[in-house]
Amino acid sequence: MNATGLDVFDKTLQTTNIWLDEIMDEIGPDRQVAWHVLGAVLHALRDRMQPDLAAHL
Q1: What does each C-alpha distance from 43 to 9, 27, 34, 55, 57 come to in angstroms?
Q2: What is the pTM of this model?
Q3: Per the domain annotation, does 49 fall within a domain?
Q4: Are 13 and 4 in contact (CB under 8 A)?
Q5: pLDDT digit string (tens) for 32-54?
Q6: What whole-number distance in Å separates Cα of residue 37 and Cα of residue 12?
Q7: Which helix (H) or strand (E) holds 7?
Q8: Which residues contact 24 (CB under 8 A, 6 or more apart)?
Q9: What is the pLDDT of the chain when averaged over all its residues?
Q10: Residue 31 belongs to what domain range?
Q11: Is residue 39 part of a domain?
């Protein structure tokens, strides 16, 4: 059974959890800190991209 029942959301959740696990491997086991790190990185990338590319991020 899928977590949300929608494949597109389930794939996004799976990718996010993989990224969070990789961040936690580097900085430690605190998932909330990993979430903040991921958010900061994604915001920094978005802010430096052209708007048409950032829309797809």
Answers
A1: 20, 19, 14, 12, 10
A2: 0.80
A3: yes
A4: yes
A5: 999 999 999 999 999 999 999 88
A6: 18
A7: helix 7-27
A8: 30, 31, 34
A9: 93
A10: 7-54
A11: yes
Task: Enter the tokens of residue 27.
Answer: 């900085």
> Are 38 and 24 a contacting pair, CB within 8 Å?
no
47 contact partners, CB below 8 Å, separation of at least 6: 54
Burial environment of residue 38 by CB neighbours within 10 A (0 to 12, 13 to 18, 19 or more): middle
pLDDT, position 1: 54
* Side-chain-facing half-sphere of 19: CA atoms under 13 Å: 16
Q: Is 32 a member of any domain? A: yes
How many domains are there within the chain?
A: 1
pLDDT (0 to 100) of residue 15: 96
